[in-house]
Amino acid sequence: MSMRGGGKNRGRNWNQGSSGGRKFFDGGNNYSEHDDRMDKNRDRKSGEIKRRVSFKPFNGGRNKGGPGGPAISNIKIRAHLEDDEAMAGDGFEGGERKVFYKGNNKGFNQRRGSPIPRGRVINKKRLISGPTSWFEIKIPFGHKYDKDFILRSLLNSIKPEIFIPHYWKVEDTAVSFYIEDFPAAEALQRIDRTIDLPDGRKMIVIVRNSTPQFQINEQLKERMKLAMVKRYNPATKALNLEKFHADPDLSDIFCALFRPQLLLAALDVIKENIPDLEALNLNNNKLHMLDHFKQMATKIPTLKILYMANNKIPYVNSLDSLKALNLIEINLDGNPLKDRIKDQTVYVSEVRKRLPKVIKLDNIDLPPPIGFDVADDDSKLPSAKASFLCDTAGADIVRQFLEQYFIIYDSDNRQPLLDAYHEHAMISMTVFNNPSQGSQQRLQNYLPHNRNLSFKRDLETRCRFLKMGRLPVVSFLSELPPTKHDPQSFVVDLTLFTPQLILLTVTGVFKERKLAVINEPYRSFQRSLVIVPSGGGFCIRNEMIHINNTTRIQDEKAFKEIPLAAAVPAVPAAVVAPVPAVPVGGPDDNTKLQMVQTMAAHSNMNLEWSRKCLEETNWDFERAGFAFSELHKQNRIPPEAFIKP
What we know:
disordered N terminus, about 15% strand, about 25% helix, 16 helices
């Protein structure tokens, strides 16, 4: 017979012959050391040499005996050893649990199916702690003992740790339940086989990571609904789902809201039964990921207050899933996201970035958010205008000043601009340089004068690029390339108009006049002017120029005549009409009506735009006619001004 290893089978008596030779084992299990054979390979009576039974392995095959010897199958032996393993192991649930053995010899590998060697230690599976971890506790043969006895024995053995058992169940001969606390689960794992039972045995305590099973169906939703009834306050339209899985009415079913399927089922119940819910408390529910909260905006659109304190929300960007809600109050105390943001100001800013209407955060009132909120308001923003005039009385002065200035600036000689600047005038220029658009090549004539404070750090350089005095200013302007401006592109903002000071900004498009270049590139400009009275007129005290490349829209509209003939009827170059008599103290309503009708008849504008023209010129009919004529020459009057009902 051939077997692997040197194991002994003490359950059998192996005889040397059929007529009662001496036994290697006596009637008991004691090995006999006496050997009175003449030849270890010869029979004592017949003298025949018999082949011995060898326990050494043979090279002829795994299940083969020695030469001429019996071939004994390992099937029965293996089955016997596997029975031993089943008796010694602690696994449950169809052998899910794996049992490993450590030996003293480093090279020892325990073959599956072998008996447990003496002195070997069983390694138990390590528990894993997570934000939503649950643990199953199983007591084999626990059906023999009372529930109170089992729980009291476990709690006394793991003091000072405590636990709350959930979903107690007796299945076959085993008792099982679930707990949430990780330290308690570790403590229970350590007390395996340390508690004495009334029958003299040790209590087996098996602990593993496991979440209770559940199934979403109408029965579960009905149980949720019944549990929510006592948790809803109709006076405040508030629903308290704090630690919902621990509700006494749900003690026999798993209903933890950190599982997305269960939370969505709860939202379905709310949508069907509490459609006008305004406040929801989800504290202490182990909420971790909030991606499925996006559906809350459609299922509870009226929600304004949301409590999610003492959960497991890790990052503030998890709140992106709540952006569609119009929340005015939220509580996030006790979540890891607060520990990641130490600065309270940054924390408030990050929350409001996602929930801009929140005015109460973590039970603390916040200042009102800054910004426009017209979603719930019927008011409209003011209509956009091409130019802004803080005082229409300054329109003529500004128009005349700019006309004269740019006529000289676009000429071949800019020296006459000396009269346009104050004796102590200052001027500076900035240039936007974007190499990706080729601006460095297109704006190279202006880059040497660029006084961008982001790059000019030291005081000496800043002063050098600042031109001060009438002569240095005009000399600087004369060094710039000759230009041609497009008056139709001008936009003027008059932000301050007083007898002592005028502040205005003019933007528009110009191009450089180069004889060698057919299609000169367009440039965009912005000039901010501080104008003060001087003698009988005005002069520039301070000016800032900004040069940039034009946008695509500016390129399309620049230096193009707008054919108004196709859009509006022909109108005279100037409005010449008898002016209605204006009573002392300003025109009354009848006089205003006559002036509007007269303006409409001679300008071909409709009554609305005729009234607007007169109102913006303070009901000065001659001034209104002049303004209309000038704007019409520049094609600045929109076509809708000539559309009549």
